[in-house]
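Handoff note, outgoing to incoming analyst
You'll be picking up this chain. Sequence as last confirmed:
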Amino acid sequence: MLVLIIDDVSQKRQLAAIHALPYHITPSIFPPSQMNRYSYRLARGLKHYMIHLPMQSSSAKMNRFTKTMKVTDSNERIAARIQEIRKFFPTAVFVNNHTGSVFTSNYAAMRRAYIELKRNGFIFIDSRTTSHSVVRKITKIYKGPYIARDIFLDNVQKRSAILAQLKKAVRIAKQRGYAIAIGHPHPATLDALKHAKSVLASVQTVYIDEFYRRIYGRITYH
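Most recent structure output, in case you need it:
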């Protein structure tokens, strides 16, 4: 199985481009932000999607994103943010981090967020934007599954480079039984996926919820 996730989705045209591809691809949708105050509407009627939650990184520019969760946020602020996300996305189950290298490597902050996400019926997917992520440690303590990205597809936005990354993801899937690859709605990424039929011929692309059911069993929806 190969789980393909496209992050940074905030526009109808991006969602349409993802759905036009001949694979099971999970869009990860931004909460309302300066990019689209009504992005939550994109999830209406969708069966397969997740939430792309901004978390603090080492980039001051990235941390200006609307309501980025910071390591200095209080328990109350983190709880209020995640409860707000639940109201925006009442049918969502899966959440992954947008940037977040600082947040996901801070044990106290990530623990607060994980507890609150779990309380609100969310399952956290670690985008692994840092090798210092503490998410695995926290999931083990709270007896939850640790699900994380294996491959970033489009750090280099060229068709050949993206296809090479897809090949790496396929190799991991064949060795382990599954792999999780994350890309973005860049023109180069969408173009590469259009030309990836032969690369992906030996794996089954599955939505994140399909993957979860097969590996971990039934999902209990909020």
